[in-house]
């Protein structure tokens, strides 16, 4: 099969488009013929070696955790899926090696859910990691309820745009930080946009004079540090970007594969309450260019990789 691999940590320049053996299929996995994958910042952070203290790498590494595709074979113990089923997945294991930037991936069933029927594979591939991150932060950590006001930092990005929509589906009012050029986009998602940077507290207080009920931080740094001052009494804070949140009385969220959560996200997509914005699409052999775009840090929505 064709795949993207790297044999040492480095920049996108070390990525290679090569022939690799089809992955072996364990009893609790299915072989997925990959139609599309997507790029997440964690992909190039792993490539750069930043997660080496936490995750063993088996070189050559096939990068990628997001997938949308069709089941080709089912493992001996699998009853959930059969050949021909369309699936999406956040195919993260406890080491990195056999990722989704390939024509086939052996995906544990615990990482998969059925693909939403009303969207294409490229849009579906942008849902798992970003959608689960937003969903688990809002629902399981912040426990957002109808009628509350939620502030989302970096609301126009891949995770942020999904967080805005999920919070709205939960019945919350949403304030989102973004650059001026993305304010109309946030309004189209149902959020009230504010510009990030100096004076943020005053701009948020103009909309929510008594503070917000919950803050979801997706960038860390200064945005996180100002967040406690934006909370109403009893307000909650969570970050997926900066572990310093725990010192501010908040929760650090690290996304995990979850079939139930991913199925709920798919249901939101099918009901028209959640849409994945696809910013750009690259063929598999141009994955290095997709990484470079992601590393630029200004993409609105998701970057997809077309595999088949």
Automatic annotation (TrEMBL):
**Which Pfam families does the annotation name?**
ADH_N (PF08240), ADH_zinc_N_2 (PF13602)
Q: Which UniProt keywords apply?
A: Oxidoreductase
What is the main EC category here? oxidoreductase
Gene3D superfamilies named in the record: Medium-chain alcohol dehydrogenases, catalytic domain (3.90.180.10), NAD(P)-binding Rossmann-like Domain (3.40.50.720)
What PROSITE patterns does UniProt report for this protein, alphabetically? QOR_ZETA_CRYSTAL
According to the entry, every stretch annotated as the Enoyl reductase (ER) domain falls at: 10-305
Residues in a coiled coil are none
* A GO molecular function held by the record: oxidoreductase activity
Superkingdom, taxonomy of origin = Bacteria
What SUPFAM superfamilies does the entry give? GroES-like, NAD(P)-binding Rossmann-fold domains
Enzyme Commission no = 1.-.-.-
Protein name listed in UniProt: NADP-dependent oxidoreductase
């Amino acid at each position: 099969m064709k795949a993207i691999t790297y044999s040492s940590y480095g920049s996108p320049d070390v990525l290679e488009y090569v022939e690799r053996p089809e992955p072996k299929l364990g009893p609790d996995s299915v072989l997925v013929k990959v139609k599309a994958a997507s790029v997440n910042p964690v992909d190039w952070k792993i490539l750069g070696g930043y997660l080496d203290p936490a995750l063993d790498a088996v070189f050559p590494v096939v990068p990628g955790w997001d997938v949308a595709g069709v089941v080709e074979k089912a493992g001996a113990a699998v009853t959930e899926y059969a050949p021909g089923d369309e699936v999406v997945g956040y195919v993260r294991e406890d080491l990195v090696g056999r990722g989704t930037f390939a024509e086939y991936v052996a995906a544990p069933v615990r990482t998969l859910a059925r693909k939403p029927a009303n969207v294409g594979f490229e849009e579906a591939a942008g849902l798992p990691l970003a959608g689960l991150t937003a969903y688990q932060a809002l629902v399981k950590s912040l426990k957002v309820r109808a009628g509350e006001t939620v502030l989302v930092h970096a609301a126009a990005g891949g995770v942020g745009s999904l967080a805005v929509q999920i919070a709205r589906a939960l019945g919350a009012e949403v304030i989102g930080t973004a650059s001026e050029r993305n304010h109309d986009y946030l309004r189209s998602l149902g959020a009230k946009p504010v510009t990030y940077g100096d004076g943020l507290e005053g701009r948020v207080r103009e909309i929510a004079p008594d503070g917000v009920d919950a803050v979801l931080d997706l960038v860390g740094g200064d945005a996180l540090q100002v967040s406690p001052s934006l909370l109403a009494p009893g307000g909650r804070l969570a970050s997926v970007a900066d572990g310093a949140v725990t010192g501010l009385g908040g929760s650090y969220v690290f996304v995990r594969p979850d079939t139930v959560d991913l199925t709920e996200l798919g249901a939101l997509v099918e009901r028209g309450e959640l849409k994945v914005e696809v910013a750009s699409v690259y063929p598999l052999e141009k994955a290095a260019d997709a990484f470079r775009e992601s590393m630029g840090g200004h993409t609105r929505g998701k970057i997809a990789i077309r595999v088949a």
